[in-house]
Amino acid sequence: MDVLQLDISGRPQAWITTREAAAIYASDGVAWTLGDPCQVMRGGLQRRTGMQSRIEVHPIIAVRGSVPSRAWRQAPALSNAKLFARDRYICAYCGHSFHVDALTCEHIQPSSRGGSDSWMNCITACRGCNGRKGSRLPEEAHMSLLYLPYVPSLHEDMILRGRRILADQMEFLLASVPRSSRLHG
């Protein structure tokens, strides 16, 4: 299980392990938390009291410190796994759902014709449709897109990273995802 790390203003920063979260707790770096504790970590015995140290780790923690001003403005990195998840494993041309092994990253404007590897130029396609389109534009291949590409928000990107997400974490992230996102469907 991973912990969702936020900056102090509530923007997602990273998925961290419970051990990493415990280190932040131990250094008094946690500003606030959300959700019920999801794991209890126990340490050694305190010499003065004889009690065992204990840290309750919450699924969402906000970390004290400065907020990097540019970090949240950047578009999330594109990967096949996140692209397929954004598009719900559905081919943009035929509309059928496929297993990840039968999908490809399809460039709307082909790479061979100057198309970029970007969220706005890439969609999910099955191998058959991708082969049929080839290095043509969709209109040249007489293939229309069933949905349009978009750049995921920071909150969507945290969901698309494919981790096992707890209910508290999903609720927090989805609250900031636009209702028009395919992740709500």
UniProtKB/TrEMBL annotation:
One molecular function GO term is:
endonuclease activity
A Pfam entry, by short name: HNH_5
Instruction: For this UniProt record, give its keywords in alphabetical order, as a comma-separated list.
Output: Endonuclease, Hydrolase, Nuclease
Superkingdom in the source lineage: Bacteria
Nuclease listed as a keyword: yes
Report the residue ranges that make up the HNH nuclease domain in this protein. Answer: 78-131
The identity of this protein, by name, is HNH endonuclease
UniProt source species: Roseateles albus
